[in-house]
């Protein structure tokens, strides 16, 4: 697992692709009730027995192993945008480079200083760290045993025919966040091309509550063989003290994937810090 570190260049940005956070500077902001994952689930169109389900899970998990390893060999440009969907409203934007050095450590470096015109909420670089450790490849071969999978049907996504599976943790973990949602798996190559859901654990960490919890993650084919997360979005409401609810939208984009200029060795022996 790639360990996230910080490179100091004028200003520091810890941006894990597809992961951002939101904090409030004007007193505590209470997130509104979250949408239920079940709302995104399609109805089954055909039965898929447990043996067939297990085989599909085995195949896409093996592909996730390959995607995760390949992901560490690429650098890319990361941009984050948070919008207040109100009138008047503002937005926060920042972009940076994400790259891995030969020691296997991923670094994120600011390309353009953050610009914020937010009027009713706040978003800072420090907030980004809160969700920076959320995994992108959480259904690898060594992780699928933590989940139960229920076939939900099929769906056409652009030119892809996909299977849909409901994914739920078998048992919540006190210290580790697990995915709870829906995935779309390409029927031909058995790769995950989309996911929609949240990350949960047995006991939520104390501190600032984040309004963004449900994430829609879209993957794109990179270098003709890898399906990497390139577009992540989330919408939610926050309710500042003595104020009406404010709709927010988050968009995280990863673009311009390039092979790292140096080869990446095996993952560092020091494990990454566990998420709070």
Task: Explain the overall architecture.
By secondary structure, the chain is mainly β. It has one domain (3-259). It is built from 2 helices and 12 strands, in the order E-E-H-E-E-E-H-E-E-E-E-E-E-E. It has helices at residues 50-71, 125-128; strands spanning 3-6, 30-31, 74-84, 91-100, 105-116, 147-157, 160-169, 178-186, 192-200, 215-222, 226-239, 246-259. Strands 1, 2, 3, 4, 5, 6, 7, 8, 9, 10, 11 and 12 form a 12-stranded mixed β-sheet that branches. It starts with a strand and ends in a 17-residue tail after the last strand. Residues 1-36, 38-42 and 265-276 have low confidence and may be disordered.
Defining key terms:
twelve-stranded mixed sheet, globular, disordered N terminus, disordered C terminus
Q: What's this entry about, in short?
A:
The chain has 276 residues and is mainly beta. 9% of the residues lie in helices and 41% in strands. The chain has helices at residues 50-71, 125-128; strands at 3-6, 30-31, 74-84, 91-100, 105-116, 147-157, 160-169, 178-186, 192-200, 215-222, 226-239, 246-259.
Task: Reconstruct the topology from this structure.
Layout: E1 3-6, E2 30-31, H1 50-71, E3 74-84, E4 91-100, E5 105-116, H2 125-128, E6 147-157, E7 160-169, E8 178-186, E9 192-200, E10 215-222, E11 226-239, E12 246-259
In whole angstroms, how far apart are the ends?
Answer: 17 Å
Structural class: mainly beta
Number of helices: 2
What kind of oligomer do you see? single chain
Strand content: 35-45%
The total count of strands amounts to 12
The helix content, as a percent range, equals under 10%
Order of helices and strands: EEHEEEHEEEEEEE
Radius of gyration: 19 Å
On the 0 to 100 scale, the average pLDDT is 79
Shape: globular
Low-confidence spans: pLDDT under 50, at least 5 residues?
1-36, 38-42, 265-276
| Major sheet summary line | 12 strands, mixed
Number of domains: 1
């Amino acid at each position: 697992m790639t360990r996230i570190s910080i490179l100091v260049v004028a200003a520091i940005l810890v941006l894990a692709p597809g992961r951002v956070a939101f904090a409030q500077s004007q007193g505590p902001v209470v997130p509104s009730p979250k949408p239920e994952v079940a709302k995104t689930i399609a109805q089954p169109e055909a039965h898929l027995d447990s043996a067939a389900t297990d085989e599909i899970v085995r195949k896409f998990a093996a592909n996730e192993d390959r995607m995760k390893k390949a992901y560490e060999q690429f650098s890319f440009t990361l941009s984050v945008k948070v919008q207040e969907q109100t009138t008047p409203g503002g937005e926060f934007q920042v972009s940076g480079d994400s790259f891995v050095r030969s020691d296997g450590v991923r670094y994120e470096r600011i390309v353009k200083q953050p610009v914020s015109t937010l009027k009713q909420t706040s978003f800072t670089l420090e907030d980004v760290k809160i969700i920076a450790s959320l995994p992108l490849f959480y259904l690898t071969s060594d992780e699928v045993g933590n989940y139960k999978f229920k076939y939900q049907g099929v769906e056409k996504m652009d030119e892809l025919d996909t299977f849909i599976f409901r994914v739920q943790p078998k048992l919540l973990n006190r210290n580790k966040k697990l995915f709870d949602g829906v995935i779309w798996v390409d029927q031909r190559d058995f790769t995950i091309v989309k996911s929609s859901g949240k990350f949960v654990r047995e006991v939520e960490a104390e501190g600032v509550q984040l309004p963004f919890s449900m994430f829609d993650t879209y993957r794109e084919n990179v270098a003709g063989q890898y399906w990497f997360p390139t577009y992540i979005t989330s919408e939610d409401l926050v309710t500042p003290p003595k104020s009406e609810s404010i709709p927010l939208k988050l968009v995280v984009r990863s673009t311009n994937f390039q092979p790292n200029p140096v080869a990446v060795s095996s993952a560092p022996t020091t494990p990454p810090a566990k998420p709070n």
